[in-house]
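Internal tracking record. Fields below are filled automatically when a chain is submitted to the structure queue. Please do not edit lines marked as system-generated. If the sequence contains nonstandard residues, flag them in the REMARKS field before resubmitting.
Queue: standard
Priority: normal
Entity type: single polypeptide chain
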Amino acid sequence: MNMRVPHLRFEPADELAALCKAGGDPLRLNVLRALSNDSFGVLELAQIFATGQSGMSHHLKVLAQAGLVATRREGNAIFYRRALAQSEQLGGTLHGALLDEVDRLQLPADVHGRIAEVHAQRAAASQDFFARTAASFQAQQDLIAGLPQYRDSVLAVLDSLGFSSQATALEIGPGDGGFLPELARRFAQVVALDNSPAMLELARARCEQDGLTNVALQLADALNDEYPAADCIVLNMVLHHFAAPADAIKQLAQRINNGGSLLITELCSHNQSWARQACGDFWLGFEQEDLARWAVAAGLTPSESLYVGLRNGFQIQVRHFAKPDNTAAHETTRKAHSPTGNNRKTDR
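SYSTEM-GENERATED OUTPUT FOLLOWS
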């Protein structure tokens, strides 16, 4: 006697099965490892793992269906990043445990090499952009978020940190130098660093115009060249131009004196892809959680945060990350400071 067995559906179990399936392939696990602190397009991932675009697209579809990667469309391209585990949801514990184990993996040397090639291609594209658009860049930047829109918020955080009169500051990517007069008034010595000769000339003109005698300008790559450490490093609307922002935060943290600060002003994550063409942005803003996670991985402590709403649909985040003071010399360079971890929002 033949008996017909009904097809049973177990939807919650189906979700767990998709998660297990997605994690059951070595290439997909290595893709998740590569995405731990970065975001790549399908063509970049195909290059990194030396595989065909169609095959990589299939693997990314499986990861996306399992909720392990999130996607963001920028023009005609789709970029992938790791999705954060939601522990309160079904599969969240397994999701988090899988990523913890993935982060223990060591990517092969050739994969690391091809990741470096992708980052170098991005960096070269950025340098070319600024070489071509230095004269008009500030006007384009002002369409999104100009310095007047966030200057007061940055200064509010900066002034709350209580630096001593002998403290030093470093601004990465000063643009036309608009923020340098504020730093020059607050620090004994300021270094402005840029890898674009054209942009640095704009900053030099501003320094000469305002008579900033305690500001030194240096043509250098912030991640590869030598320059002095500082008590405070400032990045105003710059991090989205770095090829690998998590690595940038890690390396910059090493240039901060003990007890010092990293001050980052950035756009929150958005989907207005025209910013890539207009301003040469690699990243369309950042998730607040990502900046905090990258800072903690770099040995920094998240502290004061301000959020500024803009009329054009963007939102700015002003973030302070403190470097723990492991020396008794802290009081010689800074006044006592205790991170509050407060979040404040300013609407404009």
